[in-house]
Amino acid sequence: MQITEVNKWNLIILILDQFTTRLLSSCCKMSNLMSEGITIVEDLHKNREPVPEMKAIYFMRPTAECIDKFIDDFKPKPKYKAAFVFFTDYCPDDLFDKMKKNCAKHIKVCKEINISFLPLEAQVFTCENTEAFKSLYSPNSKDRDQTLETIANQIVTLCATLDEYPGVRYKKYSFANEFSLQCRDSANGNKLAELVDNKLARHYELDDNSKKKGKTPALLLIVDRALDPVSPVLHELTYQAMAYDLIPIKDNTYEYKLKDGSKKEALLNEEDELWVKLRHMHIAEVTGQIPKLVKEISASRDEKKQADGKITIGGLSQVMKKMPGFRKQVTQKTVHISLAEDLMNHYQKNVEKLCKAEQDLAVGADADGQKVKDPMRTLLPVLLHPHDTTDKIRAVLLYIFSLNGTTAENLNKLIQHVKIEEESGYILNWKHLGVPILSTPSMFSFRKPSRRDRSDQETYNVSRWTPVIKDIMEDAVENKLDVKDWPYQSECPSAWNGSRAVSARQKHKGSSPDDLRSGSRLIVFVLGGVSYSEMRCAYEVTHANKSCEVIIGSTHILTPRGLLEDIYNLGKQPMESFNIEDKP
Question: d(Cα 36, Cα 154) in Å, to the nearest integer?
C-alpha cells in the first residue's frame, strides 16, 4: 500500500490493528505518515469518536475479529464518510461476503496487498504469532491445521514481496517411538511445505502479462524447532542474544540509568547504527570497543565546547544542522556503554560459571577437544551451586539433550534436585516437540544430525557451540542437503546451487546489499520460533557467500525464558499457566 495512492482522496484517518501497527512502526515514522496527509492514527480495537465528515483508511489483517470491528464502525450508524480497506493478505470468502453484506455501500476500495509478515531486521522476518507454538505442539490443539494455513499465507506474502517463486524443501524424519513425536513434526513441516507450494502456484498462476511466472533462483527451507533444541536454551554470548536473554528488554526497548540516577529508554533497532554494528559481536569484542567509545564521546564534547566559543553568525546554521546527528551519536554510544556494562555484570556474577558446563554438554567435548565421557559430572557443579531455578533447568535440559534422553529414575532425581516437582512440565513437555526426554529400548532409531567439522575455526572457549541451522544453511548453499532428509516439495531451477562460481583468476569485489539481491536467495522458515543466535547465522552465511542472500523467519522470536514458559504451558488450560518468573 502506498499512502500517496490514497492521498488523492484527502484521507487523514488511518485505522490499524495490533499487527499492522507494528508493521508500519517497523518501516516508517509518524512524520512519514504526516507528510503523506495522514494526521490521525487510530486503534481498530479501541473506542473511537465518530467523524462522519471524514473518510478513513483501514489497514488490517483479514480476521473475523477485525472484520467484526470494521462492521461495528458502520452499523447501525457510520462513524466515517467512507472506508478504504487494505488487507495484509488474502481475505477468506466468508469474511469478505460478511463485510460486503453489511457495509458494501460504505466501502470505496478493498484490496489485498500481500504483506502479512513483520520485517524485524534486514534479513529477519516473523509472523508475529506467539500463539502458534501452542497450536502446533499442544496435544490438545484443535486448530493446528488452521494455524498452518495462516502461516502458509504469511510466507506467500513474503515471497510475493520479494518477487520470488522459490523451490520448497522440508526436513523429513523417519522414526518415532513412544516418547518421540518427530513423525508428527515432520507432518507439520510437510503440510506447511505443501500449503505454501500450492498457494505460491495459485498466486503466480498469471502475472500482469497474463503469463505464468516461472521459478526464481530461490529456495525455501522449512525447519521444525525440534531439529535443534540446544541453541535456544544455551547462554549465548554474542551481544544481541545475550542482551535479550539477560536484560528485561520489552518491545526492543532498553531502559538504562544516567549518572544522575535518572532513567532513559532506548530502542534497539535498525535505526541505531551502533547496535547494527555490534549486535553479532562476541561480548569480549564489544567490551573491547567500549574504551574507544568513551574516548569518542569525550572528544566530541570537547570539540563542541571549543566550537561553542568560536561560533560566528555565518557558521551558526552549519552548527545547527550538525547538532541532531551529534546528539544521536553521543546517545547511541552512551546506550551501548551502559548495556555492555550491564551484560558484563551479569556475566561475571553468574553466567561465567555456567558457560563452560553448558558448552561441554552441548558440544560433547571440553575446550581441549576431549570427549565428555560422563555428562553427569559436568552437570553436577551447576546443580550444587546456588544458581536460580531457570539456569538449573536449562543445564538439566542440555544434559538430557546430550544423551538423547535419560532414564525415568534419573529424570525424577534431577527434577527433585531442581525442586520443580510441581512444574516438571518445563522438562517433560519437550516430548511434545519430538525431543527425546526419556530413553527407551527403541532409541537406537534416533540419530542426531551430523555436524560440520569446525575444529579449525578460532572460537572462545565459552562459545564453541554452533547452531545446527548454520550447518543447514551452508549445506543448502553448497547444494549438499541429502534429498532423503530434505525432500523437495517442488524443485527450483537445476542451476541453482546457492552461489555463483567465481574463477580464482577473477578479482573479487565486495558486495553491497543491492549486489546480493541480484544473486540467489535462501529463505529459511523455522516452525516454533527462532533464537537470536540462529538469526545471526543468516548474516554470517550471507557474508561468507556474497552472492547468496540468506533470509530467516519464524512464527515468533525466542528468548530462553520465553521458550521455557511456552514449553511448560503445552497441554495446560489457560487458567493453569505458570510463569517461570514466579520461581525463586
Answer: 27
Cα 544 off chain centre by? 21
Partner residues linked to 523 by β-bridges: 220, 551
Whether omega for the bond prior to residue 76 falls within 30 degrees of 0, making it cis, is yes
Residue among 133, 235, 225 at smallest CA distance from 568: 133
Candidates 482, 556, 551, 501; CA nearest to 166 is: 551
Residue 141 burial by Cβ neighbours in a 10 Å radius (0-12, 13-18, 19+): middle
8 A C-beta contact, residue 68 and residue 76: no
Q: What is the dihedral of CA 31, 34, 38, 39, to 10 degrees?
A: 90
DSSP category for residue 492: P
Q: Is residue 540 within 8 Å of residue 374, measured between CB atoms?
A: no
Q: Is 335:266 a contact under the CB 8 Å cutoff?
A: yes
User: Are 239 and 279 a contacting pair, CB within 8 Å?
Assistant: yes
Question: Is 70 exceeded by the pLDDT of residue 504?
Answer: no
Cell of 230: 540446544
What is the number of other CB atoms lying within 10 angstroms of the CB of residue 150? Answer: 21
Strand-pairing partners, residue 192, are none
What's the rounded Cα separation, in Å, for the pair 563 and 306?
A: 52
Angle in degrees, 0-180, between the axes of helices 532-545 and 468-477, rounded to the nearest 10: 30
CB 236 within 8 A of CB 540: no
Q: Which 8-state DSSP code applies to residue 444?
A: G
Distances 43 to 66, 126, 464 between C-alpha atoms, Å? 11, 22, 46
Residues composing the chain? 584
* Grid cell listed for 41: 492514527
> What is the distance between the alpha carbons of residues 448 and 446, in angstroms, rounded to a whole number?
7
Which of 6-10, 15-19, 213-217 is predicted most confidently? 15-19
Q: Is the dihedral of CA 218, 222, 225, 228 positive or negative?
A: negative
DSSP structure string for 526-581: EET-EEHHHHHHHHHHHHHHSSEEEEEEESSEE-HHHHHHHHHTTT--GGG---GG
d(Cα 519, Cα 521) in Å, to the nearest integer? Answer: 7
What is the spatial distance between Cα 286 and Cα 339, in angstroms, rounded to a whole number?
10
Q: Classify 57 as helix, strand or coil.
A: strand
Q: Which three cell numbers stand for residue 571?
A: 497441554
Among 121, 109, 203, 104, CA closest to 163: 203
Residue whose entry in the numeric block shows the C-alpha cell 553436577: 380
Q: For 332-371, how does the pLDDT look when each residue is reduced to its tens digit (9 = 90+)?
A: 888 999 999 999 999 999 999 999 999 999 999 999 999 9
Query: What are the distances in angstroms from CA 287 to CA 245, 346, 540?
Result: 18, 14, 21
What is the reported pTM?
Answer: 0.85
Per-position b or e across 507-518, b if 16+ CB within 10 A of its CB: eeeebeeeebee
The pLDDT score that the predictor gives to residue 192 is 96
User: Cα separation of 467 and 450, whole Å?
Assistant: 12
Per DSSP, the chain holds a count of helices (H) and strands (E) of: 21, 16
**59 and 14 Cβ atoms separated by less than 8 Å:** yes
